[in-house]
Design goal:
2 copies of one chain form a homodimer. Chain A is an all-alpha fold and 280 residues long. Chain A has a single domain, classed as Substrate Binding Domain Of Dnak, Chain:A, Domain 2 (Up-down Bundle), CATH 1.20.1270.60. Chain A is 80% helix and 1% strand. A two-stranded antiparallel ribbon of chain A has the order 1-2. In chain A, helix 1 packs parallel to helix 5 and helix 2 packs antiparallel against helix 3. At the A-B interface, helix 1, helix 2, helix 3, helix 4 and helix 5 of A face helix 1, helix 2, helix 3, helix 4 and helix 5 of B.
Chain lengths: 280, 280
């Protein structure tokens, strides 16, 4: 497939596309990386909230499940951010190389730029010359119709012939300059296409890497969700109440009744202890 | 399973847990909902960036894939945020109902609060009475050892007997008050446990709803990623260049050479057109 852009503007279009294409993937990744960072930080904050929140009540073990889950999600998204930042670093490096390639390409294409300018100039000359010849022919035609004197006709014919010769030379030069333009432009278009293909291949590679990282993270996040679901399922209500009683319980024994047996014997009541009798 | 917290502090522990438990799930969801909202907004912004970014170059169709994908991700997270907000609304409603239940429970448990206070007061009296009786017994013992006069011994014995009677009455009262405390406390603990069990059941239900919403979103997000991957795969490099040439191409024909045939015949050169002959 050939990019057929052979009019005078074609070179600029191709050159602009080459020069401004390479920085696109960077902006494509900087924003997502920042989004992942924000998400990760929020999840860390949530995890801290879950551990500071209210770890005293019956619900405490559930908060712990939330904390663990949020911490893991924070890590997943942090890892994704890191992978994206690695990609951005690769892209920056690639971008620097591209700048060098573009500079070199620009130098190599000086001939094409000159050919474009030459064809533009010569195209103007050709138009002017054509109009000149056209005018002389019209003049000759008019004089013939009017039956002008032979001397005048011969003079006009001479002018027309000279204009035709000049126009012919102009055409010749235009064709020569145009041929050169066509050849140079064809080479440059080929070169632009090669650079563009290599660039797009590289970009697709980068996007594949990006896509792969996102996929990995998605799988990890899915595992965290599954774990969360399982952990919530595993914490029974009985279990929550049991744990709460163990942590906050103020005692397992019933207070019981105090016995007054022995009070009236009083022979050695010193240090008498209040006996606790368990009521059923 | 019974929450055995029969010391005087037990009632406060249980009451505090009931009163401060119900608002926990709300804070558990407000933060994640906000996180999802932020994520969704960032993705929308990214989508706008992708469509405004640089839709002119060869890479334009790829930007479009990014835009579609970011837009869809924004929608997924927005939907999750909405589901979480629905859950928060449910929790607020539930919280209001809980406040009423707690108020009613507090009124019903006035008897328990009084029994707790009575047992605390009576426990103090019992201690004092025991110390009084103990003191009298020691005095009697001392007088006996010293071989005090009979009259003095009889007087001390009488005092000891009275103190024993008073102590005995105190024990009786303490046992009566204690029995009442035990019964009331047992009833209240049972009631607290029922409320707590219902509350934890409700909380688990809410968390399951939350977990379910997250799972749904995760599946949707996975589909968006898969689509993105496929779309990137489907856009060939040839295709990108083809589209670029179609949009930005400045023409398909080669400029060609201008023919000078017919210039010298000049019989009717008016309006002569520059014929383009295609060079091979």
């Amino acid at each position: 497939m050939c990019v057929c852009v052979f009019k005078n503007a074609g070179f600029d279009v191709l050159y602009h596309n080459m020069k401004h294409g390479s920085w696109q993937p960077r902006s494509l990744l900087i924003c997502p990386a920042a989004i992942e960072e924000t998400y990760s930080k929020s999840m860390s904050k949530l995890a801290k909230m879950a551990s500071n929140g209210s770890p005293q009540g019956t619900f405490a073990p559930m908060w712990d499940v939330f904390r663990v889950s949020s911490d893991k999600l924070a890590l997943c998204h942090l890892e994704l951010m890191r992978k994206m930042n690695d990609l951005i670093r690769d892209i920056n490096k690639y971008g620097d190389e591209q700048v060098k390639i573009h500079r070199k390409t620009k130098e190599e294409m000086v001939g094409t730029v000159e050919a474009v300018q030459a064809v533009q100039v010569q195209s103007g000359h050709l138009q002017k010359s054509k109009e000149g010849y056209h005018g002389k022919c019209l003049e000759l035609d008019r004089l013939r119709k009017e039956g002008a004197p032979l001397k005048e006709l011969e003079k006009a014919e001479m002018k027309s012939k000279k204009a035709a010769e000049s126009f012919s030379l102009c055409i010749e030069k235009y064709n020569r300059v145009g041929g050169e333009f066509e050849q140079k432009m064809s080479e440059s278009a080929q070169k632009f296409q090669e650079i563009e293909e290599a660039h797009l291949r590289q970009m697709k590679q980068l996007i594949k890497g990006y896509s792969h990282s996102i996929e990995d993270t998605h799988v990890q996040v899915g595992q965290v969700h599954e774990e969360f679901k399982q952990n919530v399922e595993n914490i029974g209500i009985d279990n929550l109440i049991q744990k709460f009683a163990e942590q906050k319980g103020t005692g397992k024994d019933r207070p019981g009744a105090v016995s007054s047996v022995g009070l009236y014997f009083g022979w050695f009541p010193v240090g008498v202890k209040l006996k606790h009798k368990h009521t059923k």
